[in-house]
Amino acid sequence: ETGVTQTPRHLVMGMTNKKSLKCEQHLGHNAMYWYKQSAKKPLELMFVYNFKEQTENNSVPSRFSPECPNSSHLFLHLHTLQPEDSALYLCASSQEGVTSNNEKLFFGSGTQLSVL
Amino acid sequence: QKEVEQNSGPLSVPEGAIASLNCTYSDRGSQSFFWYRQYSGKSPELIMFIYSNGDKEDGRFTAQLNKASQYVSLLIRDSQPSDSATYLCAVKVWKLTFGQGTILTVHP
To answer: Whole-angstrom Cα distance, residue A86 to residue A15?
Structure first.
């Protein structure tokens, strides 16, 4: 258990659905992240919240919408997704944050998303 | 050229051998370097980090950094079947960039 909890573990949705992924960290960390992991591709950074302020939006399509209501919770709202969005979505947190060279990430267990 | 490059493998080594995993990076301004291990069906976990040229040892793991040649490697001594996993190299310049990972299989 890394101290970063993600729900749900698995999600199947149609292209017209709206769903949300939830992440909670119990580590008192200052930064939270969403990453996308697809087969045979490197981890892709999607969004970063550093001290609750969004500091990164890595050219992510608007059908993905992040929300960070406080330093412990992070959401990823999904709507009108495409089949190519099927992937493992990982939440992570770090104490040091994006401005530090010592940026160590603690990952949640991920949500395996399938878009039909 | 990819920012962080790893041989995807799979790398297969016998139990008890030394496994050597390599990573090259393109940005000479890279400041810090991390190795994450990801078991099948699990999320990545940090196992090593290194900032300075040379070697850093932690138990059976040694990270080696050569900034002049722009590579970082991870050595696993006395490899065990439980070391079988994908190893991700990550490099920090202004943001953390991951390689695609090397699959390691340790066979009994």
So the answer is: 11
- Per residue in A20-39, pLDDT (tens digit) is 999 999 999 999 999 999 98
What is the distance between the alpha carbons of residues A47 and A59, in angstroms, rounded to a whole number? Answer: 9
Residue B85 burial class via C-beta count within 10 angstroms: exposed 0-12, middle 13-18, buried 19 and up = buried
Chain B residues within an 8 Å CB radius of A2: 43, 45
Phi-psi region of A17 (alpha: psi -120 to 50; beta: other; left: phi over 0): beta
Chain A residues close to B58, C-beta within 8 Å: none
Q: Report chain A's terminal Cα–Cα distance, integer Å.
A: 31
The Cα–Cα gap between A39 and A87 comes to 8
- Model pLDDT for residues B86-102, shown as the tens digit of each residue: 999 999 988 899 999 99
Residue A52 scores a pLDDT above 80: no
Dist CA A18 CA A81 (whole Å): 9
What's the mean per-residue pLDDT of chain B?
95
